[in-house]
Amino acid sequence: MREVILDTGPLIALLDRSERSHEACTEFFRGVTGRFVTTEPVLTEVVYLLGPAFTMQKPALEFIMKGGAEIVPQTPESLRRAMQLMEKYRDVPMGFADATLVALAEERKINEIFTLDRRGFVTYRIHSRKAFTIYPG
Asked: Can you give the pLDDT at residue 33?
């Protein structure tokens, strides 16, 4: 089954109609066959960025609970790899959530990512070689 990695920006855009990328993200999300996968650090970023009130955060949690994306738990190996990636890309810089997504891509052999962070993900490489296919295009 096709898997696409889900980053912070598109999830916020899907949930917040006032985001300028809402339409493009909604259109892409609805058209994908397969499933979205993400990490707990991404969900944590989303909840934080949506705001301090639970009423603002709740849609992100419901999105995950209703199957909008699978949360892939971190392992000691994936955390170790995330640290290596953050060191390697420190000049970009690479944040922790992005590092967990690249580690997930390597672990699951996924090269498709749903992100608004083109600057980062056009630079990051899977196993230091393979480029990501970035959506929305």
From this structure: 94
Place of tokens 């967990």: 100
When the pLDDT of each residue in the chain is averaged and rounded to a whole number, the result is: 97
Q: What is the DSSP string of the chain?
A: --EEEE-HHHHHHHH-TTSTTHHHHHHHHHH--SEEEEEHHHHHHHHHHH-SSHHHHHHHHHHHHTTSSEEEPP-HHHHHHHHHHHHHTTTS---HHHHHHHHHHHHHT--EEE-S-HHHHHH-EETTTEEPEEE--
What ranges do the domains of the chain cover?
Answer: 3-135
Please check whether residue 35 is in contact with residue 90, taking contact to mean a CB–CB distance below 8 angstroms: no
Instruction: Report the percent of the chain where pLDDT is more than 70.
Output: 100
pLDDT of residue 137: 81
Q: What CATH superfamily is the domain 3-135?
A: 5'-nuclease (3.40.50.1010)
